Amino acid sequence: MRVPSFSDIESAHERIKPFVHQTPVFKSKSVNKLLGAEFFFKCENFQKVGAFKFRGATNAVGLLSDTEAARGVATHSSGNHAAALALAARNRGIKAYVVMPETSPSIKIKAVKGYGAEVVFCKPTLEARESTLKDVIKKTGAVEIHPYNNFNVIAGQGTAAKELADEVNGLDIVMCPVGGGGLLSGTSIAIKAMLPGSKVVACEPAGADDAYRSFYGDKLVPSVDPKTIADGLLTSLGTMNYTIIKAKTDQIVTVSEGAIIEAMRMIWERMKIIVEPSAAVPLAAVVEKRINVKNKRTGIILSGGNVDLEKLPF
Amino acid sequence: MRVPSFSDIESAHERIKPFVHQTPVFKSKSVNKLLGAEFFFKCENFQKVGAFKFRGATNAVGLLSDTEAARGVATHSSGNHAAALALAARNRGIKAYVVMPETSPSIKIKAVKGYGAEVVFCKPTLEARESTLKDVIKKTGAVEIHPYNNFNVIAGQGTAAKELADEVNGLDIVMCPVGGGGLLSGTSIAIKAMLPGSKVVACEPAGADDAYRSFYGDKLVPSVDPKTIADGLLTSLGTMNYTIIKAKTDQIVTVSEGAIIEAMRMIWERMKIIVEPSAAVPLAAVVEKRINVKNKRTGIILSGGNVDLEKLPF
């Protein structure tokens, strides 16, 4: 299987720079003191559409030929990729069709529609998403941009870790959440190329632990009836993502729902920034002592900040 | 009455620089588009202790003689000044005694104690605060550092607006909330000195409108039974603050509770940062069309980010 190399991430970075924010890296003395490490938080919650997903979508849309682009793009997504693809498509002046589970947070549905995409609802199962998407593509001829199992999307997602490593010297550990594996595979490629001595650790809710089981079981297994507050991480690991992660990721740890909420609260209260539950999963692994970062320079990619304020866990 | 001049703010800035964060100025295309202006948000929610108050407290503590400092400092405060004074005192290695209304948000009480101050509770009235504080000072000999009616505190608070004007050219309007008037008086002095063509607009909850009534009635009137979600703005305008504001502030507008919540929500959802209700009061004035900022370069001081996540208005 052909997978992205670091040079694909470098080209992606040049391609998407005019469209994406170079998000800030935040530090927090208070969180450092509480947890005994030196953290560098890459704030993708401040990215356009409120999540790193805009990087991958922008790269994938940017690489379409004019003929492809004219047919529009289509995808299924539980939310952030949907908004990301919608905005990326609008930036290129093309149509986006988005299949969304009818259970998606209202804030995400509103955002997708706000960016001008056509939303098609389906049942919240992988099967329903895929069959509905097939129908849409059949009808419209749109090009599918998969949320994570896509070469160009992965290359785009890797640009967040690239910016982090460009800005912060000598990271011992880089952590990110894993759902479908787009962010993790891009991050792993970038970090292993730029900081070969640094460890890449993926963090996953115990209630949606297909990446953990796949990684350590040496066989890609799907997510079956996943349950977690981290709604961005309900999806199953993709085949391309699995291949990359097996080769480049050092470790996957799982965390409890309680730890996710505690970590999310810590980020909100101490850092005064809004992150969604999925983004709090890496810090949850530290809170829950699933990974030892004592005195280590630890990069964490805060993947997004889209939460429904009506449904907070506090 | 001797009041601070801009040079006092400049000296304060040099004095406190080693202790305070130079907070970032955030922009938001999405908020700009929604409200039709170009906003520059000075993020004092990212200041140490989560509020601009740390600037004034640090300046006042820094200006104590060694003899004064040895006796410790004391104050009454509904919260942010309390935490600010506690940390400023700890930074100088001296004691802080803090009189707090028993109704203060738990997150603020916890913070004050966490910074090592001795907390003395009182009823939530100005009278109870003042008499309890008198008792404390009598017993300990501590130097009172008033939250806002204090020359050095005002000079310190003015450094937030100074940093904003240093960083952003050509602001047409600068807005901040007004409670006791510490931030507003410091801001007015700084902006009138640095950007004489710029308008300083104070924003106040209609349910705690003593500054509005004092300003337009040409007579300092106290806050009687104020009611607002903006718990940092319940206090009455100070005499020194009143004097400065009458001379230097251009306009005061009042806003409804609904607009405060709407503005707070807009900042949380669109900018992914946490601000307390008091900090949302200036944007509320724009939301509620109490002030016309159409196409204007508008600076807003986001005064703080300390909210009790258990008691959100959403």
Question: What does the model show?
Answer:
With 314 residues, chain A is of the alpha/beta class. The first copy, chain A, folds into two domains: 6-51 and 151-311, 3-Layer(aba) Sandwich (Rossmann fold); 54-144, Rossmann fold (3-Layer(aba) Sandwich), CATH 3.40.50.1100. Helices cover 46% and strands 15% of the residues of chain A. Chain A has 13 helices and ten strands. In chain A, the strands form two sheets. A six-stranded mixed beta sheet of chain A has the order 1-2-10-7-8-9, with helices on both faces. In chain A, strands 5-4-3-6 form a four-stranded parallel beta sheet, with helices on both faces. In chain A, helix 5 links the parallel strand 3 and strand 4 (96-101). In chain A, helix 1 (6-16) crosses helix 3 (53-62), helix 1 (6-16) packs across helix 8 and helix 9 (182-194) runs parallel beside helix 11 (239-248). The mean pLDDT of chain A is 96.
Question: What is this structure's SSE topology?
Answer:
The structure is a homodimer of 314-residue chains.
Chain A: H1 6-16, E1 25-26, H2 29-35, E2 38-43, H3 53-62, H4 66-70, E3 73-76, H5 80-92, E4 96-101, H6 106-114, E5 118-122, H7 126-140, E6 143-144, H8 151-167, E7 173-177, H9 182-194, E8 199-205, H10 210-217, H11 239-248, E9 251-255, H12 257-271, H13 277-287, E10 297-302
Parallel strand pairs in A: 2-10, 3-4, 3-6, 4-5, 7-8, 7-10, 8-9
Antiparallel strand pairs in A: 1-2
Helix pairs in contact in A: 1-3, 1-8, 3-5, 3-8, 5-6, 8-9, 9-11, 12-13
